[in-house]
Design brief:
- The structure is a single chain.
- This protein is mainly α and 323 residues long.
- Helices cover 73% and strands 0% of the residues.
- The protein contains 17 helices and no strands.
- The longest helix is centred in the C-terminal third of the chain and has 34 residues.
- It starts with a helix and ends with a helix.
């Protein structure tokens, strides 16, 4: 089982739906944060602005359904404000209501087609849905077109390219995202994943090392770097990372990876088997096929000679009697 989990084939041929689940976890983890909730809204006291402020507060408390109610009131007070739709869409997405969220982001885009936020949030939501990687890619491209200096567009496009297993394009986009926002650790993590699937193990190790340096207690990055070392057949370093990760967070799967790396290292370091000595040839002796043949021929010749001599004597005796 450990071998299967640690093999390059398993990691490098992840199905699209599996990758989508990974992306969903990442996007819901709080690590991705664009302008999520905007406070801009028209209206005075008791109007859209107050509902927006209350909705943002509720959303930050993870009371998403209540936040949706407040953002709906903000929309009713000012139906031309695209950010209110984006805010409600963000809360709907966090509540797992993805189609409704996409509808709100689409409405925000309809009202303000030059505002990159609607495209960015819709792209993020589409990445969480099945068979929507093309739509997510198109929206990410629009974000880059409208806001070329915004790192998020390149990052979301990188996510869409990962979902399409376009590893080289994803690595390139995450590189641009990092250049524009060097402190975005998530881009390092996803670039490392892309490089690992490209078998660019040194580059992947470098990115995982950035994450571990930033947070030495990051057991997941330790496991991922350990796997990268194992794929590169550097089992000693893989073992070190797995052992460090297990000290931070005991995990059965990591334990299996550790056992596999240890077994591979032992096999790699095992002395070569001793050469089997060639058998010492034994003397052929007299009983060889040739000697046996010669012996039989000699016996046959002697038998013929004896027969002829005996026959000659017999004929001589007979002739004397006849005479």
């Amino acid at each position: 089982m450990a071998q299967k989990r640690s093999s390059g084939g398993t990691e490098m041929r992840i199905k699209t739906d599996q990758m989508r689940r990974v992306i969903v976890v990442i996007l819901l983890s709080g690590l991705v944060a664009g302008p999520l909730f905007a406070r801009r809204s028209g209206g005075g006291g008791g109007g859209a602005g107050d509902h927006t402020a209350k909705g943002v507060e509720l959303a930050q408390q993870k009371q998403y359904d209540a936040a949706v109610v407040e953002f709906t009131k903000a929309i009713e007070a000012n139906p031309k404000d695209p950010r209110s739709y984006s805010n409600r869409g963000t809360s709907l997405r966090a509540a797992g209501k993805l189609p409704e969220a996409v509808a709100d982001f689409s409405k925000a885009i309809e009202i303000a087609p030059k505002d990159f936020v609607g495209y960015m949030e819709r792209s993020q939501t589409e990445l969480m849905m099945a068979n929507q990687s093309d739509a997510a890619l198109a929206d990410a491209n629009k974000v880059i077109e409208l806001k070329p200096d915004e790192a998020a567009g390149y990052k979301y496009r990188g996510f869409a390219e990962i979902a399409a297993t376009q590893w080289d394009k994803a690595a390139a986009d995450f590189t641009i995202a990092i250049q524009k926002k060097p402190d975005d650790l998530q881009s390092y993590d996803r670039r490392a994943w892309a490089n690992r699937n490209l078998k660019q193990y040194d580059a992947a190790v470098t990115d995982y090392t950035v994450l571990i340096t930033h947070n030495p207690a990051d057991s997941e990055s330790l496991v991922r770097r350990g796997l990268t070392y194992a794929l590169a057949q550097d089992y000693e370093k893989a073992i070190t990372d797995y052992e460090a990760a297990l000290k931070i967070k005991p995990d059965e799967d990591t334990g299996s990876r550790l056992q596999y790396a240890r077994a591979q290292l032992a096999a790699k370091n095992a002395p070569p088997p001793a050469a089997t000595p060639a058998p010492t040839p034994t003397p052929a002796g007299l009983l060889t096929p040739i000697n046996i043949g010669i012996g039989l021929a000699v016996i046959l010749i002697l038998a013929v000679v004896v027969k002829l001599v005996t026959r000659g004597k017999s004929e001589a005796t007979s002739s004397k009697r006849i005479r």
